[in-house]
Amino acid sequence: MVRMILTGNESAAWGARLSKPKVVAAYPITPQTSIIETIAEFIANGEMGARYIRVESEHSAMAACIAAQNTGVRTFTATSAHGLTLMHELLIWASGARLPIVMSVVNRAMAPPWSVWTDQLDSMAQRDTGWIQIYSENNQEVLDSIIMSYKIGEKHHILLPTMIMEDAFILSHTAEAVEVPEQKLVDEFLGEYEPAFKLDPEDPGGFGSLIMPEGPYMEFRYKMALAMDEARNEIRKVSQEFGELFGRHYPGLLEEYRTDDADAIMVVLATIGSTAKDVVDIMREKGKKVGLARVRYFRPFPYEEMRELAKKTDMLGVVDRSHTFGYGANLYTETKGALYGHSSIPVKNYVMGLGGRDITPSVLEKVFDDMLKIAKEGQVDREIEWVGLKGDERWS
Amino acid sequence: MRKLTIPEEEYMLPGHTACLGCGAAIAMRYVLKALGKNTIISIPACCWAVIPGVYPRRTLKIPLLYTAFEVTGAAISGIREALNAMGKEDVNVVGFAGDGGTADIGIQALSGAVERGHNVFYIMYDNEAYMNTGIQRSGSTPMGAWTTTTPGGKKRMYKWEPKKDVAEIMVAHHIPYVATATIGYPEDLIAKIKRAKEINGPKFIQILSPCPTGWRHSPDKTVEISRLAVQTNIFPLYEVVNGTYRITVKPKNLKPIKEYLRLQGRFRHLTDEEIEMIQKHVDERWKELLKKERCSNEK
Amino acid sequence: MIILPEEPTPIAKVPSTENKTGGWRTFRPIIHYEKCIRCYICWKFCPEPAIEFDSPDAFPAPKPALAKFDTVKINYDYCKGCGICANECPVKAIEMVLEEMGGD
Description:
The structure holds 3 protein chains of 3 kinds. Chain A is of the alpha/beta class. Chain A is built from 13 helices and 16 strands. In chain A, helix 12 links the parallel strand 14 and strand 15 (about 345-350). The termini of chain A are far apart. Chain B has a single domain, classed as Rossmann fold (3-Layer(aba) Sandwich). Helices cover about 35% and strands about 15% of the residues of chain B. Chain B is built from 10 helices and 9 strands. Chain B has helices spanning about 25-35, 70-85, 100-105, 105-115, 165-170, 185-195, 210-215, 220-230, 255-260, 270-299; strands spanning about 40-45, 55-60, 65, 90-100, 120-125, 175-180, 205-210, 235-240, 245-250. Chain B has an 8-stranded mixed beta sheet with strand order 3-1-4-5-7-6-8-9, sandwiched between helices. In chain B, strand 6 (about 175-180), helix 6 and strand 7 (about 205-210) form a beta-alpha-beta unit. By secondary structure, chain C is mainly beta. In chain C, about 10% of the residues lie in helices and about 20% in strands. Chain C has 2 helices and 6 strands. In chain C, the strands form 2 sheets. In chain C, strands 3-6 form a two-stranded antiparallel ribbon. Chain C has a two-stranded antiparallel sheet with strand order 4-5. The chains are: A alpha/beta, B alpha/beta, C mainly beta. Chains in contact: A-B, A-C, B-C. The interface of A and B includes residues 70, 72, 199 and 203 of A.
């Protein structure tokens, strides 16, 4: 094991390098570029054996990964925002074809207006594509999650692709100390890629052919749903195996921080988690009993963990860095959906940080105070609230 | 004992669901005869996405990867690089797409794939409209044709823009092999694919494949119309090897374009003046092609 | 009991030959062997393919010089009756005959 100072994007490139994909197909987009540039350097230096297809679009990047993976090799790609949404059609194709492709996604705001800063609408809009979705809190988690994602996705009873999210700039371009595991250890952990099926002239078959309504289309989709459900157990299992081998322990689908006696718990994704943990400590010192839950896996959604969480507290405040326009944002509606019929505690949605607007400790402190007030009163003042709008003095 | 002019081995099984007299089915049969067993094919949305039949049926004796409409070029790039990574450089990789999937929605992925220089075949089976969705105009629909999105009405319509010349777009990519072919000349078609097989790099072959359903002709005329397309110069057969043109079939008795048009319902509405205009366009293009052949051979 | 496919994704492996497309036919090609010169042009252009080879003596040859060559026969299980073979036959040895109602 070596300790290096790496940005989130370099960590992603290292995660890919250590996992030894045979084909990488990628297209540049800010702020993902340094992932594919770093991989290009690894390949140019002979440190990574992958064939690198410099495709002419993200759409083609995913199509090439699908075809290569279906031919029988491990693949990797990376994208962001418009590139990810351009891939949408093929994301659904990849999961339907049951190909465990692994992709880094740098969360960036969607235009218009143009913005390259972080926002999670891009990946939230891919919720229903059948991909396992994981949001990272720091660069170490970016690297480790890529390795774990190959292990989980490639299991023959799972066979699902995974996207690993990192917040634009906050992680992608910020360097921190990262433990880079030994290649030998990663090889031992992942093993050789064994495809469940492949294009083979010795055993020809047609992949993806037409199915009539009376054919097993629905049954294949049901098998996929079962696999995604089963992925929950696999994620828990592999997180544990990873911890035993590499000494870094990840808490499965949901990470909890000081939740045991909390009056109110904030539910977040990605880097908001690390800021919020500090704020929890500050609040605790002031005698305010708050806690934090960071959703690592948004798909499959940790609904069981969420129900257990609700038992520990009087209120959940769900922070979303995106919105769905028409009702609450995704993490909020999913959380509420998981709790329905299991808990009657108030749940409130805080929409903030869109287009890369900073989520500061002082804003989070105000949100925690609002949550504690709701916990005390037993009901929400309003279901969905945007935090930090210009001129709104409540949060400034 | 039998004397055959094309390879005997079949890689396409009967029982497929192509329309009666389908030119695209004949095209596939020839392409696979030329390439043989050690081949992987990728097919996007097009007639050939339904011709093999409903799951679990297959009509090809080689592996087939269906892909989305616009990504055949990217799919064959992925298959090729994966095979090379596995040390299987000897397997032929073929994209087999219609004219819509090639000239229109798939042209970006195709351009990218051939520019990157992957060792792949791209076959455009050209039936000159979106036939699988019901005969809508594509960029490859020829001048004067009726389609369901260029119908005739009180205000006259039809398609009047020239057919997009994908083979020439491919030549502009400076790839090692570009050819046109048609099912009425099987020996020429198969010879071209076999020549292309010897070349490492991107190979593009456009196969004119008459469609009785969309061209509104009797299904028994598929091959005859294909031949007439060459004999009237509306679809010349040529190949461009490393930039050098060679017209592979030069009509001995050139026929007027009218003979080609009159067999097809999609051209039934044409007036004498319009036919004259199409004839002029065909003549000019033929002259251009002769010039390219002459000039490229001078170097 | 829910019945699920064994494979994770549809992989088509059943030959299409189980699909007998002969039922599509309106016109039936009939080979008049007394005219057939065994040139195999009908075989070459068949889009199914539904024209097969048979032994030289399966049918009488029109002239002795042709007797050593294999004959062709139409596989009516698959022939859709497009008529390309009849149209392309250089000696007009194939006739398209309207199928009888209720026949296969």
